[in-house]
Amino acid sequence: MRFISNVLKKIVVYGSILGISLLGVRGCDNIFNNRTIKKPSYEVNSYATGITGHVEYIKYANGAQDVKEYPGLAHRFFDSELHQDLNGDGLVDKIIQNGAEWKMNSLTEILVRQSDYEKNKERFDNADKKLQILMKKYSSNLTK
């Protein structure tokens, strides 16, 4: 009985430490990544995702748009992906995937809608949906 009580105490203590640590990491992610930057030529809206990731939506005055996805706290340590709408039509024209920056040659893949859409239809369609959601969420005063 005493053995079970001691084991249970250790589990509760370690679980509490882990939980508090994860909340601290999430709090730091929110502090550093939830922001909006407005300039005459562009607007950036960034928000935290999950425990350690974040997404940046950038809209330029000429109508072009970027969506950058960083799945981990430090994008230098994890893969990231950039979706670009170069002409402002609301469709992703390029998908650029990068590996962690600490790896040599971290550029993993570049997909261009014009030539790669048929083989990567699902990826482009998912990127288009994400862009449409962000366009609605962060409608801007920037004009084309």
Structural class: alpha+beta
Query: Strands of the largest sheet, in order across it?
Result: 1-2-3-4-5-6-7
Main β-sheet: number of strands, strand sense, barrel status?
7 strands, antiparallel
Question: End-to-end distance, in Å?
Answer: 72 Å
Q: Quick check: average pLDDT?
A: 85
Helix-residue proportion: 25-40%
- Based on CA atoms alone, the radius of gyration comes out at 20 Å
What is the element string, with H for helices and E for strands?
HEEEEEEEHH
Please report which band the strand proportion falls in: under 5%, 5-15%, 15-25%, 25-35%, 35-45% or over 45%.
Answer: 25-35%
Fold and architecture overview:
The chain is of the alpha+beta class and 144 residues long. The chain has one domain. The protein contains three helices and seven strands; from the N terminus they run αβββββββαα. The protein has a seven-stranded antiparallel sheet with strand order 1-2-3-4-5-6-7. The longest helix has 32 residues, at 2-33. The mean pLDDT is 85.
